[in-house]
Each structure stands twice: as structure tokens, then as C-alpha cells.
Amino acid sequence: MSLRRPPTRVELKADDIIEYEEIMREREIAAANAAAKTDASAGGGGGGVNDSAFSSKAGAGGGTGATPSTGAKRKATIAERIGAPR
Questions:
Q1: What counts of helices (H) and strands (E) characterise the chain?
Q2: pLDDT tens sequence across 30-54
Q3: By the 8 A CB rule, do 16 and 32 touch?
Q4: pTM for the whole thing?
Q5: Rounded-to-integer distance, Cα 30 and Cα 38, Å
Q6: Which end of the chain, N or C, is more open, meaning fewer C-beta atoms within 10 Å of its C-beta?
């Protein structure tokens, strides 16, 4: 005999959407800066349209370029949200 519990409800708030959009903008800017540094160190490159298309898709990968400080910041944010002790 197993007990069935009601499904967990997760509510999406306006603040969450704003935070998500802000994070995505920061990732796009970081990807654009990284692409600009790569282009500058590689001697320029003339295909700006193609380069920007690739850099915007690279930023949407889900954190492949995360640094240790970014990971620590993210863990701290998650711990704060769920109320876990640090």
C-alpha cells in the first residue's frame, strides 16, 4: 500500500522572470566580449554577421564557460533561496 501525495507546485514570479532576463543579458554580453577578444587576438576577421550568430548561440549552452567564482556565487544564491545554512 503506497500513499500518493499531491504534486509539488512551483510558482513562477515576476521577479524570477526579471532575474532570468538579466542573467541572459549578462551571458550574451560576456559571449560577445569573449568573441571580440578572440577576434582581436586572431587578427580581426571580417565576417561580423556570422561571428555574432555563433557567439549568441555559444552563450545559450548553459554555462559551458563558467568560472569557479561564478559557480560559487551560483551555489551561494541557491543556498540563500532555499534557506540552507552556509
A1: 3, 0
A2: 999 988 888 777 665 555 555 444 4
A3: no
A4: 0.38
A5: 12
A6: N
